[in-house]
Amino acid sequence: MAPVAPRSGDAIFANIERVNAELFTLTYGAIVRQLLTDLEEVEEVNKQLEQMGYNIGIRLIDEFLAKSNVSRCVDFRETADVIAKVGFKMFLGVTASVSNWDAEGTCCSIILEDNPLVDFVELPDTCQGLYYCNILSGVIRGALEMVSMKTEVTWIHDVLRGDDVFELQVKLLKQVPEEYPYKDDE
Amino acid sequence: MIGVGKMKQYTNVLDKPLTKGKQEVSLSAFAFLFSELVQYNQTQVDNIGELERRLEDAGYAVGARVLELLCHRDKGNRRETRLLGILSFVHSTVWKVLFGKVADSLEKGTEHEDEYMISEKELLVNRFISIPKDMGTFNCGAFVAGIVRGVLDGAGFPAVVTAHFVPVDGQQRPRTTILIKFAEEVLHREARLG
What is the ipTM for the molecules in this complex? Predict the structure, then answer.
């Protein structure tokens, strides 16, 4: 069978089932609110959001690979491009852009202008340390870990804290080759 | 690039114009998020009743906000004051905005005057959820029940809202019914209004 060409983010998004972004936004807000009530410490909430994102990311990557037909990325640059153009579009319906590559090509910024998670949201004074969209950093970290890339994802700019855009820094720590899980002599 | 304007940054979120509500995300993104919500709550509780209550509370917050948003955007700030009015608002407008279609049916309970039921063949939130046998009658539709309770409470119609599975002949998956039991004061007021 001839290999199917990778589909663009828009084409995939048009073909999958969609729900109203407001339901998504409000549900995410309910989650953050529950976490804040339960955990009280903003740092704990940040960690928990990242962990939840990680759990989502490790499952999301399967769906992403199945629906988008992208071939194996040659290098990290292509990976970041695919995340920004296809990944974000396919799941959140928004396109991100990639910039600020460092010299070695292992660290870049993904910039989101539009973010459905933060509609209607304002951070109160008591939660100034909160990374509201931290679930996204967990999703990216989880998804990339399942394709053998250990990464570190941090927030550079956050609209809820007064910046213009959302900027995530994705840094490739190392490529972990897949390990054969069974010993040959067993 | 000429002509590409940057979105005006508003300092106060309340000054931002309201979106039209047409933006969409993928169903799987929502399904993943909802599954994380349920999984997180499972770690925080000991029994099913607590789990349902927590999901309902999460939904309550969503419902209160949905009411405010829809009243302002879709209904031109007009309030519903009659029972049937608010029920049809929930059954049609709220369902259409949140789940993309009106609810399958709205029925009045036969045994009690204060009970109404909204039924749905398959709730959107339950689409990718399977309940293990040892969880008995637990229904993640408690989240949707919470949304309905939030809308009704905010509109001035306090009620107890629960979600139930109702097995249907000939169908493998049971249908979900959201049971709404209005408080007494609502019925008194409705009788007074004639």
Answer: 0.88
